[in-house]
Design a protein that fits this description.
about 240 residues, mainly alpha, Ribonucleotide Reductase, subunit A, 6 helices, disordered N terminus, Fatty_acid_desaturase-2, fatty acid metabolism, Ferritin-like_SF, stearoyl-[ACP] desaturase activity
Length: about 240
């Protein structure tokens, strides 16, 4: 799945591309099966106590592999649902009904994942709103790349970036989608209504609630950058541009 490289400045956007390397480390995924619901348990002490990937696996932050405990997956699953749904639509428009069917099935599966993870983080906001909103804001401030940034075809070291530009240009996944997802989660988790937070928690809440409008102001710039980007051949479609 592609995340638009045009979503900049990178200082406050979660997904930004990292240059692919042939020897890049593959992401590691931590397994867990239960959520510890004791209100005395701080979010910072959850050791992957939520199902797979909720607080995420190893990922890339500023070019380094890290393992942050952040509410990452609800955002990622909704993004995957949107991108596969849009791919299904494009495939159908161009007459490839089988590909449209495959992408539609994947999108439906991702929607179920999104629903589950969103409900889990919703519970975490009830248990420990302060640490959860701080973790949410911290995640959104860091430059985090999806595992897809590791894609490499043996010749293009910037393959993920080039792929992301095409996704933005075709409407598979765009800056608008990114802002829409953030607004959806902020509303669903009632982040703007959080009260009784610490000073850091209040600042984190305000940062998150003001972030989507800032991203929307970049939307036109992002679309323009994608339209002006040169065409690049992709090896897996026989070097078509």
């Amino acid at each position: 799945m592609a995340y638009p490289v045009a979503l900049r400045p990178e200082s406050f956007l979660c997904f930004s591309p990292v240059r692919s390397k042939r020897n890049a480390r593959s992401p590691r995924f931590s397994m867990a099966s239960t959520i510890r619901s004791s209100s005395a348990t701080k979010i910072s002490k959850y050791t992957f106590s939520v199902p797979i990937l909720l607080f995420h696996s190893s990922t890339v932050v500023d070019g380094r592999v890290e393992t942050p405990k952040k509410p990452f997956t609800p955002h990622e699953e909704r993004a995957t649902f949107i991108s596969h749904g849009n791919t299904a639509r494009l495939a159908k428009e161009h007459g490839d009904l089988k590909l449209a069917q495959i992408c539609g099935i994947i999108a439906s599966d991702e929607k179920r994942h999104e629903t589950a993870y969103t409900k889990i983080v919703e519970k975490l906001f009830e248990i420990d709103p302060d640490d959860t909103v701080i973790a949410f804001a911290d995640m959104m401030k860091k430059k985090i790349s999806m595992p897809a940034h590791l894609m490499y075809d043996g010749r293009d070291d910037n393959l993920f970036e080039h792929f992301s530009v095409v996704a933005q240009r075709l409407g598979v996944y765009t800056a608008k989608d990114y802002a829409d997802i953030l607004e959806f989660l902020v509303t669903r988790w009632k982040v703007g209504d959080l009260a009784g937070l610490s000073e850091k928690g209040n600042k984190s809440r305000d940062f998150i609630c003001n972030l989507a409008p800032r991203i929307r102001r970049l939307e036109e710039r992002a679309h323009g950058r994608a339209k002006k980007a040169p065409t690049i051949p992709f090896s897996w479609i026989f070097d078509r541009e």
